[in-house]
Amino acid sequence: MAKKSKLGRGLDILLGQSVENPARAHTNDKLVQMQLDRLQRGQFQPRSKFDGSKLDELTQSIASQGVIQPLVVREISANQYEIIAGERRWRAAKQAGLEEVPVVIRNIDDQMALAIALIENIQRESLTPIEEAKALSKLIQDFNMTHEEVSKVVGRSRSAVSNLLRLLKLSDAIKTMLESGEIDMGHARTLLPLPDDLQIQLAQEIVARGLSVRQTEVLVKQALNPNPKNIKKPNPQWLEMTESISKRLNSKAEIKPGKGDTGKIIIHFDSKESLDNIFKKIKD
Predict the structure, then answer these.
(1) What is the distance between the alpha carbons of residues 158 and 237, in angstroms, rounded to a whole number?
(2) Which of 163, 132, 170 is nearest to 147 (CA)?
(3) Bridge partner residues of 75 (DSSP)
């Protein structure tokens, strides 16, 4: 017997069907050629973005060879069908100038449509980490599944499922950086223990300095466990002096301590006129 695909095994687990009798599933399926204008995007499509270059490659392939794998659709109204699996092929077929594509028509409910759409995308590895995490979360919430059950359905380890779901706890800014590819999943996971403001601050540093995941781990550890020995308490007398200088010169001033009793005074100015006024007050 031919080896059953991960997708098939996953759906069997989800639907409670026998792996030994795959022919029993979808006995009423219909394989037909269907006009593109009778198809519409699926409401359960987990992908929010499609890679333009990869879509162009698929378009070229379809233009020369046609659509080899049928789309999976279901009827939603008279002569109108919703795509359950295969939206990228549908888009590429339109770009290639095709008028119709092969489809398999299935009579399935919303839950089944959701399951097929999520599992197909997850197992094709065509989702970003955040899209996949959202898809896994939806499986858990809508089907009341455990992490273990989801891991069997999608062909992932339980730890991989749990790690992906944890990404949803990241701040929105970090999720955006992860989806855009500015940082990778390893960086994002490392930032999880930090509050939102520190996540953003360190993520910007990761990008600016091109830090590895290991370097990021060190940075996060330092942020979570600052060394008290490196934190110098401000000298009350110097604080008073700083305030006095600022008032006298009408400009922001800082006293930076050095070793022992040494240090430096920094006076800020924002224009030549401001500098001239500071110099005049110092001379007076």
Answers:
(1) 58
(2) 163
(3) 81
Let me know how long the chain is. Answer: 284
Q: Going by CATH, does the domain composed of 6-159 fall within 3.30.1440.10?
A: no
Pinpoint the alpha helices (H) of the chain: 6-15, 52-65, 87-95, 110-123, 129-143, 147-154, 158-166, 172-180, 185-191, 196-209, 213-224, 236-249, 272-283
CB 173 within 8 A of CB 167: no
pTM over 0.85: no
> What's the CA gap between 266 and 284, in Å, rounded?
19
Q: Does 231 score more than 70 pLDDT? A: no
- Report which of 151, 149, 171, 167 is spatially closest to residue 159, judged by C-alpha positions: 151
* Marked catalytic residue, from 82, 87, 120, 132: 87
Residue 273: Cβ-neighbour burial (10 angstroms; 0-12, 13-18, 19+): exposed
Dihedral sign of CA atoms 168, 169, 172, 177 in order: negative
Strand partners of residue 80: 77
**Joined tokens for residue 171:** 């701040």
Q: What are phi and psi of 33, to 5 degrees?
A: -90, 130
87: annotated active-site residue: yes
Q: How confident is the model at residue 82 (pLDDT cuts 50, 70, 90)?
A: very high
- Stated as kind and residue range, the H or E segment containing 74 is strand 71-77
Q: What is the pLDDT of residue 256?
A: 78
| Ranges for all domains in the chain classified under CATH 3.90.1530.30 | 6-159
